Amino acid sequence: MLVRLLYVSRAIDKDCSKAIESILDVSRAHNMHNGITGVLCYGGGVFLQAIEGGRNAVNTLYNHIVADPRHTDVVLLHFEEISERRFGGWTMGQVNLSKLNTSIVLKYSERPEFDPYSVSGKVSLALLEELMATASIIGRA
Ligand SMILES: Cc1cc2nc3c(=O)[nH]c(=O)nc-3n(C[C@H](O)[C@H](O)[C@H](O)COP(=O)(O)O)c2cc1C
């Protein structure tokens, strides 16, 4: 059974470019092995991540991620059973939210900086849909 989970968290180190590289390297190897796909967005010291896959695999990974000392204030925004994946093309895609076209961000928020803590999980998912539609998600083989 497939599920999708969405959470937001705050990076401990505000300049998290090094942490992101190592998170993505480990994630891509680990996720491929465990049938996990998704997207990791970051910007303004905030992570927004969607993960999807088997229910057990997603729960195990989420518990692991919550305990990671590189971030804090982890808030679960959305969890649902799904019949198909949305991010099936990415073992873990990436998006730098601070480099996004402001009009995409403004479409879903009051101010030009996207803050997943202040909007509903549905709105954050809608932003991810928009990122898919506008080919803003970067992947690596
Ligand atoms: C924001 C964030 C997102 C992460 N996403 C993933 C992920 O998608 N897959 C993954 O395996 N690890 C992810 N990690 C890293 C895990 O917390 C953990 O460090 C990694 O799975 C290695 O675990 P291990 O050292 O027990 O093997 C993420 C960490 C952070 C801080």
TrEMBL record:
What protein is this chain from?
BLUF domain-containing protein
Taxonomic path = Bacteria, Pseudomonadati, Pseudomonadota, Betaproteobacteria, Burkholderiales
Can you tell which superkingdom this protein's organism belongs to?
A: Bacteria
Q: Where is the BLUF domain?
A: 2-93
Q: Name one GO molecular function term.
A: blue light photoreceptor activity
Q: Which residues cross the membrane?
A: none
Give one Pfam hit by family name: BLUF
| Matching InterPro entries | Acylphosphatase-like_dom_sf (IPR036046), BLUF_domain (IPR007024)
- This chain's source organism reads Hydrogenophaga taeniospiralis CCUG 15921
Q: Spell out the SUPFAM superfamilies in the cross-references.
A: Acylphosphatase/BLUF domain-like (SSF54975)
